[in-house]
Amino acid sequence: MDCLFCKIFQGQIPSKKAYEDENVFAFHDIAPMAKTHILFIHKKHTANVNGLSTIHVGQVYAAIKNFTAGTELEKEGFRVVTNTGAHAGQTVFHAHFHVLGGEKLKGFGA
Ligand code: 5GP
Ligand code: ZN
Prior knowledge:
Blueprint: H1 4-9, E1 17-20, E2 24-28, E3 36-42, H2 54-68, H3 72-76, E4 78-81, E5 96-101
Antiparallel strand pairs: 1-2, 2-3, 3-5, 4-5
The chain binds guanosine-5'-monophosphate (5GP) and zinc ion.
Zinc ion (ZN) binds next to helix 1.
């Protein structure tokens, strides 16, 4: 499978790991859009979020909840973004969830 994010979670391409469990892997974005910018992916390859079952989406959100619990991110707030397809500007076609925070984020449309 010639997929950048599959290669990252399999360790074939280096990344700065932030979190891992049986189903989910998370790593720091190479071009951060906020002080904290982490990408959460399910280990099952699908091109976008609509390819993930509700169980898989739940597993990703459980990982985000576990990762943020008790941290500054939970205390001060964070944003989860999933770009899907051309209009959203998706560039990597392995479903992923951006977790952004660590500073006050701009509002939508700003
Ligand atoms: P998208 O635009 O598809 O929603 O998000 C893809 C994200 O993957 C971008 O924020 C981009 O900076 C990040 N990215 C692309 N290639 C790499 C890489 O090789 N390593 C890491 N850590 N992030 C990457
Ligand atoms: Zn993949």
